[in-house]
Amino acid sequence: MTLEFSRDFDPAYGRLVEIAPGIRRMTVANPSAFTFAGTNTYVVGEGRVAVIDPGPADPGHLHALRAALSGETITRILVTHTHRDHSPNAAALAAETGAASYGAGPHRPAPGAHPVGGSGRLDAAGDTAFVPTRPVGDGEIIEGEGFRLQAVATPGHADNHLAFALLGTDILFSGDHVMGWATTVVAPPDGSMRDYMASLDVLLARPESRYLPGHGGAVGNAHSHLRGLKAHRRMRERAILDRLAKGDETVPEIVAAIYRDVDPRLHGAAGLSTLAHLQDLVARGLVACGAAPDLAARYALAPG
Ligand SMILES: [Zn+2]
């Protein structure tokens, strides 16, 4: 199975672009190795609208968004997850508009998360300030004027990650869980590989076929992409088990061997992704670790 990524995307910074009937997108000018061309803010509806992921603390983006929506009213602010490229603008936007904010709760580590150890923690990832005025659970429906959005709990990239299905259409806002330009980062302590894989299955069981992600362009044929993502992670898992069988014992040794083709700026994330796999393998009894399974620990194949 080949997993295909596309980096073909025009961010059109500062402009609100219609991408489907009743759906517009404005991309924040915060491009980076982690955010690709920048964070996508989506506007759902017309007249009285919902905003999904207002973005990082960036007054310029908010100003451009509100100018593009002049004559319309923002009534709801939805947050896919509390990473700093998605949620911090929510507070200012709520204060300016009086709109309610919706999300799966404040930032939190994955259940059973182990300390990462060392200096491996991805800096500046979590937005610990965001608190939704309307906490949303899995399956809950957010009713707007002319649209209904259903929250789909999709932990893995972040424990409080939600996707939003636009009911009555084939569209799902997939946040950072599923994107078309790259695989997502699954990094402890926010992320959990076990939850991420289960959340891919959650989306496979749903009907939506076209995803609008937090970064980059739409993902068409989404179920095929989901199957490719699952196969990709299983391949990484096999590669890690293979390195352990060959005698590697540490995260840096494994990363050096299996992430040769990856942008060196992402090696810190690769280490955490490898750690996410190792913690999952330890939990499943396939890998042994004498101490807490963190970045500094030594790992081996479990006997038997
Ligand atoms: Zn993001």
Fold and architecture overview:
- The structure is a single chain.
- This protein has a seven-stranded mixed β-sheet with strand order 1-2-3-4-5-6-7, covered by helices on one side. The protein has a five-stranded mixed β-sheet with strand order 8-9-10-11-12.
- It is α/β, with parallel strands linked by helices and 304 residues long.
- The mean pLDDT is 94.
- It is built from six helices and 14 strands.
- The protein is elongated and about 65 Å long.
- It has two domains: 17-221, 4-Layer Sandwich (Metallo-beta-lactamase, Chain A), CATH 3.60.15.10; 230-301, Arc Repressor Mutant, subunit A (Orthogonal Bundle), CATH 1.10.10.
- Zinc ion is lined by residues 35, 39, 83, 85-86, 176, 214-215.
Give the count of structural domains: 2
Whole-angstrom Rg: 19 Å
Distinct bound molecules: zinc ion
Distance between the termini: 30 Å
What's the total number of strands? Answer: 14
Helix-strand string:
EEEEHEHEEEEEEHEHHHEE
Structural class of the helices, strands and pairings? alpha/beta
Average pLDDT, all residues: 94
User: Any idea what the CATH architecture of the largest domain is?
Assistant: 4-Layer Sandwich
Largest sheet: 7 strands, mixed
Strand percentage: 15-25%
Low-confidence stretches: none
Share of helix, binned? 25-40%
In the sheet with the most strands, the strands line up as 1-2-3-4-5-6-7
